[in-house]
Amino acid sequence: MLIVSNYHYIRENFSTPYPSVFGLTPAQFKFQLEQLSNYGAFISQDELLSYKETPLDKNYFLITFDDGLKEQYELAKPILEEMGIPYIFFINTSNFSEEKVSLVHKIHLLRSYVAPEILLQKLNTEILTGNEKKAALQHYNYDTEENAILKYFLNFRLSIIEQKEFIDPLFTKYFEEKKVAEELYFSEEMLHKLYTEGVLASHSHGHLPLGRLKASEIRKEMQNTQDFFLEKFGKKAKALSYPYGSRDSCEGIGNLLKNSGFKLGFTMERGANNSLQDDSLLLARYDCNDLPGGKNDLFKNRNPFESANLRKWHTYENSFTHK
Q1: Dihedral pair phi/psi, residue 5, rounded to 5°
Q2: For the chain, is the Cβ count within 10 Å smaller at the N or the C terminus?
Q3: Mind giving me the DSSP string for 51-87?
Q4: What is the pLDDT of residues 257-283, one digit of tens each?
């Protein structure tokens, strides 16, 4: 069985004027790895690929990181190496080829330094129904009411294009994009070292919800990210982490990924993977907070390999259905 644990921000301190970025400190990260090691072995990207045609021979954890953040390299990588634990870093290639900041990170940064009431004033959130506001508070139950409504409106009411139209001018007002990209994401030297070590993979090109795009747009995303790997390293990426990872961002595009050269695909379905033979392009993955040692441990000191739900999305046809 395979359980994948996914991480984003790793920082010593998460203090900002308006807290909106959450993650683990290095100490919390190391503690979780120690907890996981009590239940199973850790596996690398290349080792995992060897099980595409044969059953998994034991219980494995795979450690993954989305977004290619410099803090992951500087704070998490040394801990992993000290403990002898393999991992995969997934990068959005537009962050490097175009020196762009992903929309999701623009939103995080704005929300960290601009009061939520200011952002809410610029959005017509009053059009949310009572049921939508209730859903917002339930979905973002760790946030204040203002932040919950703001996040719900951005993520569920606005399309990606509408989000960009709202966020980009504000981001330009408060931040210099090129400087932020340089400070936030891996350096050129880091990229090459990670690829040489066999731990680099794709998080797509522009961090868009792939399954919601038109076929031509998906093809362009796949081409752009694989072209980056080919031009930079001479080979295509083997694995892809779906941006956002929700079901509608992942399903129905398996053939497109396969045709682009990807052999592994990681969603954010909360579940364990019994094998890679069912569908290696729709692998389930837990947020780190849901696993032992996390803030919202779903297993409560139980062995996750004995009590985890098996993934279900792969039981549906993962073929090219977009037009």
Answers
A1: -110, 125
A2: C
A3: TSSS---S-EEEEEEES-BHHIIIIIHHHHHHHT---
A4: 999 999 999 999 999 999 998 899 999
